[in-house]
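REVIEWER CHECKLIST
Item 1: Sequence provided? yes
Item 2: Single chain? yes
Item 3: Sequence as submitted:
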Amino acid sequence: MSDESQDGPFDYQLFGLAVRSEFPIPELPATTSAGEPDVAIRRGTDAGGTLISIGGIADFTVSEGTTICIAPAPGASPRNIRLYLLGSAMGLLLHQRALLPLHANAVEVNGKAIAFMGASGSGKSTLAAWFHDRGFRVVADDVCVVRFAADDSALVYPGLPRLRLWKEALEASGRDAADFARSYAGDDDWDKFDVPLEAAVTAPGSTPLAAIYLLDKGEAARVDHLGGIEAAEAIFANTYRGRFVAEAGDPKSHWEACIRLVRTTPIFRAVRQWGHQRMDEESSRLLEHARATIENSAA
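Item 4: Structure as written out by the authors:
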């Protein structure tokens, strides 16, 4: 899972949760904590939890939104174990805690979070990289966890401090693939790479969510407002690891959270002309729209 010679426990922060692990997780920002963690990550199994079995990698048992137990497969790459730990296993745990994880990226613009959601391959991380490279803080990559404040406003909590980019997008951004590790170790055909982000360009705490954009492709660029059931269905469809909703708890509560988010946060469909050669133009247009949305909400 990582360097087994190091003695734990190790304390981290992820999605606003205090995480304590028996082994180091270098992908997470370290912290110090004297209290009880929100989430414990352990070796072994738990007969009372929900099992996620990844062939050749590990069995992950997720229990009550508080514990992930890991039984690695013989010879499995520690990096690949952590890939699924911080992906599917953590996704199930978030649903067990009745949080709202979106399959989205989020960046900070004028002190507010702007989220871009969509299916794999829709360009979320490429867009986040564009914002990052222009000095904007990245709040979350791939998984964007939403919570609600006492006044019902939506807040976004920091995710993994990295960007995950396909090789073509990585090189189009001016980076060299040779400088980064593949997201999945041991498979040279897996052309997705992890780009670590330094603390100075990641958001340190919760950030108010100002708008969500559903990314789409089309011949003509445009941004359309989504409302009502259409917007709620878009949130529901872009829930991270949404198949776990029925296993983890109450689907009705999850649907109500989607509606709650729609009532407090503007949702848009952003249609973009595809191609890295149009990236700067299309992203600049989205930035202008996001800034105008933030200004209008403050008026």
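Item 5: Key structural point noted by reviewer: Residues 10-96 form one domain.
Item 6: Recommendation: ____
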